[in-house]
From TrEMBL:
Annotated positions of the N6-(pyridoxal phosphate)lysine modification: 112
Enzyme class: lyase
PANTHER family assigned to the protein according to its UniProt record, in alphabetical order: THREONINE SYNTHASE FAMILY MEMBER, THREONINE SYNTHASE-LIKE 2
Keywords: Amino-acid biosynthesis, Lyase, Pyridoxal phosphate
Protein name in UniProt: Threonine synthase
Provenance organism: Sphingomonas crocodyli
Needed cofactors: pyridoxal 5'-phosphate
Pathway info: Amino-acid biosynthesis
Listed GO biological process terms: threonine biosynthetic process
Top-level lineage group: Bacteria
Catalytic activity: O-phospho-L-homoserine + H2O = L-threonine + phosphate
Pfam hit, one: THR4_C
EC number(s) from the headed UniProt entry: 4.2.3.1
Sequence similarity: Belongs to the threonine synthase family.
């Protein structure tokens, strides 16, 4: 399997090099040169498999040439052996057609664990035989940071620097990052928004001399390996609800478009996906882009669903690449215009390429609270704010009556205890495996949102000889 950049100018790479690189050298994102396809019989053969065996089957074509089946299975067994539920991503039924897929049974209680536990092991495996030190730089709106830190804390040949917007993540999210005191973990609270943090990370990758000197790598969903791992749970849940004999719809709370793009990949591989519902909060750039072709940046509004408080969705570029007919030069020109003007118009003909698969919904704070109350009152299920936005969008979806709808439950409700309690009157409790989170020492630096400050901090911590 070879990978190409969405902007067409970076060299083709194999899976190992793409995983270690993260962002392409031309500023684009790596995608497979072509989408692998699964036949109806191959999808049917996934029925009854464990999550690990499903993961091996689904990811096999993407890692071809880099890992054997035995190596991939060993990595998956280690990664998912840390999850607290034997199903890894269990399905729960809410009513006659609505389901939630609980993606929060990993060590940091968020869906990011599903991919990042594996990614940490992939980094370690690929660095094993290299005389190379990896400097991971990432931006987080909440959950990516803690999941990435847990995945690589204490690992040899790796330092991780995680940027989060000061005061704009929940206390649980912050503490899950800042109480990890391993010497290779460096947390940075920037004085700005998540979009500022994400822009700084992309700029560091684009600063070639710095990126090369410190061997900068990515754990954000700009890293293809993360999206690859997320494709698995679409297959795993769909076959349990009748695929390939009937289609299944998914409602995905999203800000950065990575999780829902994984569903798009599953569809391209042959999974019968009836609809991918893109659920946004009031920071609705993705809803505007998909429904009206208006991909223009507004002002970020802080909400009770902070992981969705985003106006620039990095992974949307991967969908735009396919919408541009996989013409990297054309997309590069479009993205240059977007980066200059913060606006991009998507013609109706181009949207028509994917509109049969995607739907989108904007869910405000009141509708989110109503969904949380419905979950508690009607199904005995506490939903975190992000999942509630996905569930509200699922309830409103216009779909055939016989199509089951799976909402991706992206975080444990206790990560957002105040918001859940306000909506439901019930205070969710943190699982015992999180331990004494609120009693642990925190360690992080507060820095201005400037390249000079962030790169200087990285250089000081990693050392001039890296």
């Amino acid at each position: 399997m070879q990978y190409v950049s969405t902007r067409g100018a970076a060299p083709r790479m194999g899976f190992e090099d793409v995983t270690l690189a993260g962002l392409a050298s031309d500023g684009g994102l790596y995608v497979p040169e072509s989408w692998p396809g699964f036949s109806r019989d191959e999808i049917a053969a996934l029925k009854g498999l464990s999550y690990v065996d499903t993961a091996v089957a689904v990811m096999r074509p993407f890692v071809a040439g880099a890992l054997t089946d035995e190596e991939l299975k060993g990595l998956c067994e280690t990664a998912y052996g840390r999850f607290s539920h034997a199903a890894v991503v269990p399905l729960k039924q809410l009513d006659h057609r609505q389901w939630v897929m609980e993606l929060f049974h990993g060590p940091t209680l968020a869906f990011k664990d599903v991919a990042l536990q594996l990614l940490g092991l992939l980094f370690e495996r690929f660095l094993r035989d290299r005389d190379t030190h990896l400097t991971i730089v990432g931006a987080t709106s909440g959950d990516t940071g803690s999941a990435a830190i847990d995945a690589v804390a204490g690992r040899a040949k790796i330092d991780i620097f995680m940027l989060h917007p000061k005061g704009r993540v929940s206390e649980v999210q912050r503490r899950q990052m800042t109480t990890v005191l391993a010497p290779n973990v460096h947390n940075i609270a920037i004085e700005g928004s998540f979009d500022d943090a994400q822009a700084l990370v992309k700029a560091m990758f684009a600063h070639q001399s710095f990126a090369t000197r410190y061997n900068i790598a990515a754990v954000n969903s700009i890293n293809w390996a993360r999206l690859m791992a997320q494709v698995v749970y679409y297959f795993y849940s769909a076959v349990r609800l009748g695929a390939p004999d009937r289609p299944v719809a998914f409602s995905v709370p999203t800000g950065n478009f990575g999780d829902v793009f994984a569903g798009y990949v599953a569809s391209k591989m042959g999974l019968p996906v009836a609809k991918l519902i893109v659920a946004t909060n009031v920071n609705d750039i993705l809803h505007r882009a998909l429904s009206a072709g208006d991909y223009s940046v507004g002002t970020v509004t802080p909400t009770a669903a902070p992981s969705m408080d985003i106006q620039v969705s990095s992974n949307f570029e991967r969908l735009l690449f396919d919408m541009h007919g996989r013409d990297g030069a054309a997309l590069a020109a479009s993205m240059r215009g977007f980066e200059e003007t913060k606006k991009l118009a998507i013609p109706a003909a181009m949207r028509g390429e994917v509109e049969g698969l995607f739907a989108s919904t904007r869910v405000d704070a009141d509708r989110m609270a109503l969904a949380m109350r419905w979950g508690q009152d009607k199904a005995g299920e506490l939903l975190d704010p992000h999942t509630a936005i996905g569930f509200a969008a699922a309830q409103d979806a216009d779909l055939p009556a016989d199509v089951p709808v799976v909402t991706l439950a992206t975080a444990h409700p206790a990560k957002f205890g105040d918001a859940v309690e306000r909506a439901t009157g019930v205070r969710p409790t943190l699982p015992g495996r999180v331990g004494n989170l609120f009693e642990r020492e925190e360690r992080y630096a507060t820095l201005p949102a400037t390249m000079e400050a962030i790169e200087g901090f990285v250089a000081d911590q990693v050392g001039a000889d890296a």
